[in-house]
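Researcher: Here's a chain I'd like modeled. Treat it as a single chain, no partners, no ligands.
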Amino acid sequence: MSERFNATSLPDDDPEGEADVPLTDDEFARGRAAMLARQAREATGLSQVAFAERYNLPLATVRDWEQGRRLPDAGSRAYLQVIRRIPEDVARALT
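Model: Modeled as a single isolated chain. C-alpha cells:
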C-alpha cells in the first residue's frame, strides 16, 4: 500500500519560512543566464569541455555561466541564443 503525503505531513525543512522568499533580481538573472547557457550546450549535445572548444569560449566561463556564478554580458547572451538555435551553423562559421 502506498503512503500518501500532504504538505502538513512533511517534515519542516525550513523552520524560518525562507523557502517562500522571492528571488532578488540578481538571483533571477543568474538563474535565467544559467538556463540559457545549459540550453545552448544541450542543443549541441556536447560536454562543457567540447562546447567551450568548439565555440571558442574559456571552459571556466562556460562552467561559471551554467552554475550561475557569473552572468554573460549582452554579446555573450546573444551568442548563446544563436548557438541554441543553430549550433551547427555557428560551428561551421567558426572553422
